[in-house]
Specification:
Elements (H helix, E strand, L loop, with lengths): L1 H19 L2 E5 L5 H16 L3 E6 L10 E5 L1 H12 L10 H21 L1 H8 L7 E5 L8 H5 L4 E5 L5 H7 L21 H34 L5 H6 L2 E6 L15 E3 L14 H8 L5 E5 L11 H12 L4 E5 L12 E4 L4 H5 L4 E6 L3 H10 L3 E3 L6 H10 L3 E3 L7 H13 L1 H15 L5 H14 L15 H4 L2 H37 L1
Parallel strand pairs: 1-2, 1-4, 2-3, 4-5, 5-6, 6-7, 8-9, 8-11, 9-10, 11-12, 12-13
């Protein structure tokens, strides 16, 4: 009898798990490895929990994930490589308008490549294909939101970069937008009244860029592939139920989030780190005065680091007593110098986790910043583009980093800053405190991401998590009615005081005339 009851319970459990299993469509057209560090652990965990995951990605990235059905889009490789090899690459960084134009063109091509792909079209024509949720990156590829309408499914966003006002709007959370630009180039970080006015104009300009540059092309694709009119886009954008943000409040970004913005910074740390080889391990272990780790990230600009900049770094490092682990794409004869070890693909997490590492010199990429915070390593930032400036600014504010302008860098300024970061104990102490705060959570970032993904699956079209700003008038949302009443009160008092003063002046003038006569 007990055996029969056990089999019955097991059968019910299997039936329940089968009923909870969902079909998940994940679309990630990244051509860089860093964002997949965030995506892959989540997709792997969801398949292990019985969900059926279909990923639309480029051909060679990421590697196949066991249990995941991959739809590879060859045109994604071509579109991204065209941008990388283009002579316009440096123009991309020259101004916000050129950046927006080139980005809009690239995102249009990426959206078209996905929706026109043979494998994707076969999926759309297969009437037996059904998806319970659409998961994608929260960038300006609104045409892909049409998949949510096509399958009548909610959308779960994943943002591998810092949050900005565009993500806030997708979540129905526009209130902190003035502090979160998409592109920080030219954004003012001080809190003066003039700067706040300038930043309001700056954000307004970015919103115009979205509506006038990004959105028209995406609307054309939405019409071409799904037949949806432009008015349909607002309904599709409201389908975002949960947005997983690569952020944590301990890292200097305390925000007024709505419930559907979930902070999961450190999600990629659930993966086992790559080990150091024997030679690198010995180099770290035998560092009597400590180690400085230098890496400008994995992205495309590493290969364009000027030769003069590299010589400046060599001159600086040769003056230091610490050993240097230098991520460098081309190993040179200097690899075996007395204190510099160059390596093409360092096991970054293992290096940062070594107790002899005293400082991390970085471009300020978000994943690298998170890894340094997790390992309690102070940072020297050399930001180059996009969110790196904001990331390093926040690390400065919390007291574990300094930042230098790569365009005005000198041997003296770099040497002085490095020595200050290593020799002043406040940086190391603050880094340890921050690391403890970052790690202290009720559940791991991966478990948090899985739980909220399944919450979105259990409560489809989770409008109860969103603030419906369409139902709140402009006057009420910004409390302009209260400000109007307050203004009327002060206005009445001002008019009364002016009138009273005028009457007193008149009375005084009358008295003066009587005295005169």
């Amino acid at each position: 009898m007990r055996l029969g009851s056990a089999w019955l319970a097991l059968s019910l459990l299997l039936i329940l798990e089968s009923a909870l299993a969902a079909n998940i469509l994940a679309i990630f057209p990244y051509r860089f490895p860093s964002p997949f560090k965030l995506v892959n652990p989540l997709m792997r965990a969801l398949t292990q929990r019985g969900h059926k995951v279909t990923m639309i990605t480029p051909v060679n990235m990421p590697s196949d994930i066991e249990g995941v059905r991959h739809i590879r889009v060859p045109m994604l490789d071509f579109q991204t490589q065209e941008l990388i090899d283009s002579d316009l690459l440096m123009e991309f960084l020259s101004s916000k308008w050129s950046e927006s134009y080139l980005t809009s063109k690239a995102l249009y091509n990426i959206s078209y490549a996905i929706l026109s792909d043979t494998g994707v079209q076969q999926m759309l024509r297969n009437s037996s294909e059904q998806f319970d949720i659409i998961t994608l990156e929260t960038v300006h590829m609104d045409a892909l939101f049409g998949l949510a309408g096509f399958y009548n499914a909610p959308i779960m966003g994943i943002s591998a970069v810092s949050i900005n006002w565009a993500v806030d709007y997708l979540a129905g959370n526009p209130s902190p937008s003035v502090y979160e630009p998409i592109s920080p180039a030219g954004y003012s970080w001080d809190n003066s009244l003039l700067s706040r006015w300038y930043n309001w104009i700056y954000i307004t300009e970015e919103q115009l860029v979205e509506h006038l540059i990004y959105r028209p092309g995406q609307l054309r694709l939405l019409k071409q592939f799904f037949g949806y009119p432009p008015e349909k886009l607002n309904d599709l954008r409201a389908r975002f139920s949960v947005i997983l943000m690569n952020n944590h409040f301990s890292m200097g970004r305390v925000r007024a989030n709505v419930p559907n913005i979930i902070e999961v910074a450190g999600l990629h740390l659930s993966e086992l780190p790559e080990p150091c080889d024997e030679e690198l391990q010995r180099f770290l272990d035998e560092a009597e005065h400590g180690v400085i780790y230098f890496s400008m990230g994995k992205e495309i600009l590493v290969r364009f680091l000027p030769e003069t900049m590299q010589q400046l770094l060599v001159q600086t490092f040769s003056k230091l007593k610490q050993r240097i682990v230098w991520k460098r794409e081309v190993e040179t004869s200097g690899n075996r110098s007395h204190n510099i070890y160059t390596i093409h693909k360092p096991p970054q997490r293992q290096v940062l986790g070594h107790p002899n590492v005293k400082l991390f010199i970085t471009n300020g990429g978000l994943l690298s910043t998170i890894e340094a915070v997790h390992s309690a390593v102070p940072m020297l930032g050399l930001p180059v583009f996009f969110d790196q400036f904001g990331n390093m600014r926040r690390m400065q504010m919390v007291g574990i980093a300094e930042s230098l302008d790569i365009n005005t860098l000198t041997v003296d300024s770099l040497t002085t800053t490095i020595r200050a970061l290593i020799e002043d104990p406040r940086y190391a102490r603050k880094a340890k405190e921050l690391s403890q705060c970052f790690k202290d959570r009720p559940m791991s970032p991966l478990d948090t991401a899985v739980w909220w993904t399944e919450y979105a699956l259990r409560h489809k079209h989770a409008s109860h998590m969103r603030m419906n700003i369409e139902e709140v008038s402009f006057m009420r949302y910004y409390s302009l009615d209260n400000m109007l009443m307050l203004g009327l009160r002060f206005g009445f008092i001002a008019v009364f005081v002016i009138f009273l003063g005028f009457r007193l002046v008149k009375i005084n003038q009358g008295r003066q005339r009587l005295i005169h006569y």
